[in-house]
Predict the structure of 2,3-dihydroxy-2,3-dihydro-p-cumate dehydrogenase.
Amino acid sequence: MSGRRILVTGSSRGIGLAIAEALAQDGFHVVVHGRRDATQLQEIAERLSSTGGSASWLQFDIADREAAKAALENEIEANGAFYGVVANAGIARDNAFPALTSEEWDGVIHTNLDSFYNVIHPLVMPMVRARKGGRIVTLSSVSGIAGNRGQVNYSAAKAGIIGATKALAIELASRNITVNCVAPGLIETDMIDQELLDEAMKMIPAKRVGKPQEVAALVRFLCSDAAGYITRQVISINGGMV
Ligand SMILES: NC(=O)c1ccc[n+]([C@@H]2O[C@H](COP(=O)([O-])OP(=O)(O)OC[C@H]3O[C@@H](n4cnc5c(N)ncnc54)[C@H](O)[C@@H]3O)[C@@H](O)[C@H]2O)c1
Ligand SMILES: CC(C)C1=CC=C(C(=O)O)[C@@H](O)[C@H]1O
């Protein structure tokens, strides 16, 4: 397997899938990733490969530290260091804070914040040792920047991602590995339901939700050679919300 390999976590659907499609068009070998449906991941990788790109797939739960470490170390042993990772996978479990259960708190923190360590830590030293530079892009949210009603767990995790991204960017800057965070507002995916859409529309100056492809275009740029001097940044894409 040759060329630059980029892992896109949570690329079975939504924003992650759009990112995987865009990076494959740019000539990266994309490692498609998800938690459950191996057949679906294989189909996506085959589709990307048969439409001029190059792709393979990996399956593991990003909240499971040991599973992530084992899967990523095996992949690196077989195919070498990654050039980059887009840490996209995430979940929301919304509830007003007084009603928020410990499962809703833990689930969101483990999946959205602990996964920063679980996924990125096994990748970093092989990237450094490869001495080829690299790209790390994380996904936060307008909720991580401004906070959002009913999302105390989600806002906490997404704010944590911003701090972790900025700190890691400082550590890796001299290695030509850029580390940036993309913070979308409301994007039209399976994560969003109609009730949320109606309520949210009042807060969006652009008066529309974003498209996964619009987020993918930003990530694609951050992964390109042209973005080599952009690091430690949080870039919002939210129709003017904050
Ligand atoms: N949709 C939005 O409005 C919006 C806004 C801001 C930020 N985001 C963030 O963007 C990212 C993608 O969101 P989306 O709307 O495309 O979500 P989505 O629900 O459509 O897709 C999420 C993906 O993550 C994967 N995933 C979830 N939990 C996982 C786990 N434990 N292990 C492995 N894979 C797991 C799913 O399989 C899926 O592929 C998330 O981090 C989300 O928080 C989304
Ligand atoms: C502020 C509100 C419209 C909103 C922003 C971001 C989200 C996300 O998934 O990151 C949504 O859940 C939504 O609450």
The chain has a mean pLDDT of 97. The CA atoms of residues 26 and 220 lie 8 Å apart. The domain at 5-237 is CATH 3.40.50.720 (Rossmann fold). The longest strand covers residues 177-184.
